[in-house]
Amino acid sequence: MCDAPPGVPSDGHGRDTARERSARGRYADKGEDDVAKILIVDDDPDIIEAGTLVLGREGFEVVGAPNRSEGMKKVEEEAPDLIILDVMMEEPDDGLRMARDIRRAGSTVPIIMLTSVNAALGLNIDRDEEMVPVDEFLTKPVEPQTLVAKVKGLLGS
């Protein structure tokens, strides 16, 4: 990151980083015509495509990433307003580790965790500030209206 004067984006591309936006307040720089950006990180391309269709129809800008490493790059590059994460990707806990990494970096961006682990394995993964620092859990498959309601609720729209 370069050292930029106060108020000037410092990502080198004229955009604020997620951390800078979070520090100023999640929506401080959003005008009436600005669209909330949602990042979906899931190793199932059908989930990314379905989420893009459902949320795009509601006026959100949606970007996707197929794994944790690409997801972390997108967090920095795209500065999403909300992140939707799958629990299990290349590794069984990739989504959980990504959520922890995002929080440790100081971001307060809302995170929705998608999981089929609870139903498939009989486990009960739930929110925990340290181990599972997410805002909502949704079990796959998610009804489109449920996803939209949770996203709008977390974004305050």
Describe this structure in words.
The protein is of the alpha/beta class. The protein has one domain: 3-Layer(aba) Sandwich (Rossmann fold), CATH 3.40.50.2300. The protein is built from six helices and five strands; from the N terminus they run αβαβαβαβαβα. The chain has a five-stranded parallel β-sheet, with helices on both faces. Strand 4, helix 5 and strand 5 form a beta-alpha-beta unit. Helix 3 runs parallel beside helix 4. The longest helix has 13 residues. The N terminus is likely disordered.
Q: Give the low-pLDDT segments.
A: 1-10, 12-29, 119-123
Class computed from helices, strands and strand pairing = alpha/beta
The CATH superfamily appears as: Response regulator
Number of continuous helical runs: 6
Cα radius of gyration in angstroms: 15 Å
| Global shape | globular
Main beta sheet, described? 5 strands, parallel
Provide the helix percentage.
25-40%
CATH architecture title: 3-Layer(aba) Sandwich
Determine the N-to-C terminus distance: 32 Å
Tell me the number of strands: 5
SSE pattern: HEHEHEHEHEH
User: What's the mean pLDDT score?
Assistant: 80
CATH topology: Rossmann fold
The oligomerization state is single chain
Share of β-strand residues: 15-25%
The CATH C-level name is Alpha Beta
* Widest beta sheet: strand line-up: 2-1-3-4-5
What is the total domain count?
Answer: 1
